[in-house]
Amino acid sequence: MPALHTQTTEVSYSYLGPAGTFTEAALKQVPDAAGKTWHAVNNVGEALADVVSGRSTAAMIAMENSVEGGVSATQDALANMPGLRIIGEYLVPVRFELVARPGTALADVRTINAHPVAYAQCGTWLNQALPGHGHIPASSNVAAAATLLHGSLADAAIAPIGITEHYPLDVLAENIGDNNNAVTRFVLVSRSRVIPAPTGADKTSLIVELPDDVSGSLLGMLEQFSTRGVNLSLIESRPIGDALGRYRFIIDADGHISDERMADALLGLRRFSPNVLFLGSYPRADKQAIEFTSRYDDAIFVEARQWLAGLLDPTPEG
Prior knowledge:
Helices cover 26% and strands 29% of the residues. The chain is an alpha/beta fold and 318 residues long. The protein has three domains: 11-94 and 182-194, D-Maltodextrin-Binding Protein, domain 2 (3-Layer(aba) Sandwich); 96-173, Periplasmic binding protein-like II (D-Maltodextrin-Binding Protein, domain 2); 195-308, 2-Layer Sandwich (Alpha-Beta Plaits). Strands 1, 2, 3, 4, 5 and 11 form a six-stranded mixed beta sheet that branches. Helix 7 packs antiparallel against helix 8. It is elongated, with a radius of gyration of 23 Å.
């Protein structure tokens, strides 16, 4: 049975909660979300289900991390929930700190509560500062800290910087991540069919399946972009799930669907692939203008179509 769409005039947003998460920090960057209702949810699937059902106008979800790569839960959810579009992109620096119950010293820490991803990103510091420590996995970065106040067996937790604004904990160490340049990319997803206007610094997201599992199929897909001067900033494979060896590709391409080179690439993909899912064209968070050579200017594609039309025109010239 298809999901029922709840009609509501209230503008609201879903995000991975509770308060203090990196996802909340991303949502705070959305001007239109200020002063609106925010729904804290437990996972990506729940956030997107809120949008599909109409409970929320849009959802903020993590798409990619500069250290860990693409977020597979998000990629799979977007592939299996039709009718969703990405309308915005936001970047959040990933910074961690070690927190503990008041009165705890760093020398007292024997066991740490941490989300597995956060734990992995702080491995170097942990092994140097707390050799021999134990690890208790947490469901989220905020939950790792919150459980310290509710009977956790851990002595400390890895949490986002600023967590002490939400929980009465002490900071034992700041900036404990291995990579100070780590960034998580978030996207705002809605059911809106209105595509944001091109800015010259845009990104187009797609999910594409190969037509068959034979030599050269992947190259054939990539050529739809390369022959039109479209650069790819992300390409990751995810299993389709219906058989071994069957994969779909999550793609971020530089440019906007209204750009002639991008539109021509999408037409090529549509002819090539049995399933192309357009996830949206939207402004890049870094506002970096897309660079390409002049032979891929819009005018070149327009002139080529006019040239072909002229060849088909039986009317004599002059």
